[in-house]
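ugh ok so i messed up the first submission bc i forgot one of the chains. this is the corrected input, ALL of the components this time, i swear. 610 residues overall. if the numbers dont match what u have on ur side tell me asap before i send this to the collaborators (the ones from the other lab, u know who)
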Amino acid sequence: MKKAILILLVLCLLPLPLIAGAEQVLNVYNWGEYIDKQVITNFEKEYGVRVNYSVYDSNETMYTKLMSGASYDVIIPSDYMIERLIKEGLLQPIDKSVVTNLDCLCDGVLNMEYDPDNTYSVPYLWQTVGIVYDTTRISPEEMEEQGFSAFLNSDYKGHVYMYDSERDAFMIALKALGYSANTSDMDELNAAYEWLRNMDKAVRPSYVTDEVIDAMANGEKWMALVYSGDAAYILSENEDMGYCTPKEGTNVAVDAMVIPANASNPALANLFINYILEYDNSLMISTEVGYASSNARVLAELSGEGGDYEGNDAYLPRSGYALDEIYHDIPEELRSRYSSMWIKVKLHE
Amino acid sequence: MKSFFRMTYPYILWIAVFIVAPMIMILLYALTKDGGNRTLIFRFTFENFTRFFSDPTFMRVLFTSLRIAFLTTVFCILIGYPAALFIANLSERAQTMMVLLLTLPMWINMLLKTYAWRGILMNFDNLESEVKVFIGMVYDFLPYMIIQIHTSIAKMDRELLTAAYDLGANRWKTFLKVTLPLSVPGIISGITLVFLPAVSSFVIPKLLGGGDYVLIGNLIETFFVTTGDWNFGSAISLVMALIIIASMWLTRKIDRNAKED
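and heres the new structure output, hopefully the right one now
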C-alpha cells in the first residue's frame, strides 16, 4: 500500500519538470519598481520563454545574494558595484554579435570609467543625485545659489528630508567641501563627518528612504535629497516642486545590465539585453519609472517638445559637467568607517 | 524508551545544521578579520569586540535597546496581567472566545501590522520616535504575555481560592498569597517571549522610529547588509546573544527562587 502511494506521488510530480523543460527560462534580478512589467510580458511572448523576475532594494543585498550562490542570467547593478563584480571576475563579457543595439546609447552613459567599452555591461537607466524643493518656499535662484550648502541653512530647520544612505550623504558633504566623492583621505572624510554633524544640527532633517517620494509629492517639507528619477515623478505630481542639480557637482549613477559568470542561459540573456535597448521598450520603461533612458532617441523624445517629461527639470540628468562623478568601489574598511560615522550623525552625536 | 530516543535524531540533526553550525560561523566571523578579496585568509582578533565596547555610540544603542525592551516588558505585564485575570474568570466558552480574539491579530503578518501602525502614527508628528516604537512593540508582543499568564491562572486549582476565603483571607490577600505566586511561571515565560524579541527587534524601530532611531538589531542589519562588514556584524550579534542568554538565566533563577518559596 505504502509503495503504491509513493509511486502515485512520484507520478504526480513527473509532469512538472516535463512542462518546465519545454520552455527556456530567463532569471532576471532587478531593482524594485524599476521596469514596465509589460516589457517582460512582451519579451516572453515574442521569444516563447518564461522570465523569472525578482527584485532587490540595494546593490549590497544583490551582491550578498549573488555570493550565496544564487544564479541569475541578467542583473542590473549600479556602476561601482559593476566595477567590483568585474574586479572579482564574477561577470562574463557581453556577446556583441547579439547585442547590436549598442550604437543607440546616449552620450551621458558612454565611456564610463568602470567599463569604457561596454565589455561587461550595457547601460539601462541613469540619474543624478539632487535636491527637490518647494518653489513657493525657496526660490530657484536661492536654491541654485546655495547648492548642497542649503542643508546647512538653519532657516529650513525642521523642513528637510535627508535620504538615509551613507554613501550619498557623504557624497554631498565631500562635494560641498570641494573634495572627491571617492576620496579615501581620512582628513577629508573627517571634515565631511563634521559637515554632516553641522547639517544635522542646523536643519534637523528627517532621515527617510523611499517614503520621501510620496511625502514630497504631497509637499510635506521644503526640500529633500532625492535621485533625479524619483524627482521626475515628484515634479510631475506636484507643480510647485523644482529640481536642482547642485553647482558643487554631484553623483551621476548608471545602472547597467550585466551577465554573471555563473548564468545558466547567457544566450537568452544577451537577447534580452538587446531587446531592452530597443526604442519601444526603452521608451516604455523610462516613461513608467521616470529615470533617464540610456537610449539617445528615447531621452531626446521624452524630454523634448511633446514628450512625457517636457519641461520636467529632473528627467534629463546633467551630463558632461566636470565636477560630477560616478562612484567607485570603496574598500570594506572605509565602508565600515562610513557606517559608524553615519550612525553617529543620525543619533545627533 | 530506546526507540523514543531514536525519534529525536531528526531534531538533533536539525539543531546541528540550523542552530549550532550557524552559531559557530558567527563566532568565527566575530573573532576574525578578513584578509580582503574573498581569499580564505583571516586572522584571529578581538578587534571587533573592542571596537564595539569602546565606542560610546554603540554603547548608547545597546542601552537604548535594553531600555525599550525592559519598558515594553513591564507595560505588557501591567496591561496583560489584569486582562489575563479577567479572562480566566469568565465562563469556559467565553474564555475560548477571548483567547481566539487575542490570537486573531497574530494571524496577520507582523510586517503588515507594523505598516498599519506606521500609517496611523504618521498623523502624530510630534510624538517622539521612541514612543512610536514603544507603542508598536507593546501592541505586537502583548498577546504573548496575556496568553502565557492566562494559561497559568486558568490551570490553577479553584479550590485553593475557596480554601483561602474559608481561612478568612479577603480578596486582595487571596490574590497576593495564592493567585499571584501560582501565576509566576506564566509571567516568567511571558517575559521570555516579550523581552527577547523586543531587545532584538529591528523591523519595528526601522518602520516606526524613522532613521534617527537605531536599536542593536538595526546596527547588525547595517553592518551586514549596507557595509558588508560581516565580522563586526557578527561580533554585535554575539554580544546580543550573550545578553539574551544572561537574561534567560536570570529569569530562570527568579522562577526557581519563587518555586522554592
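quick check: The CA atoms of residues 152 and 199 of chain A lie 5 Å apart. that seems consistent at least. Residues 127-251+313-346 of chain A form a domain with the D-Maltodextrin-Binding Protein; domain 2 fold (CATH 3.40.190.10).
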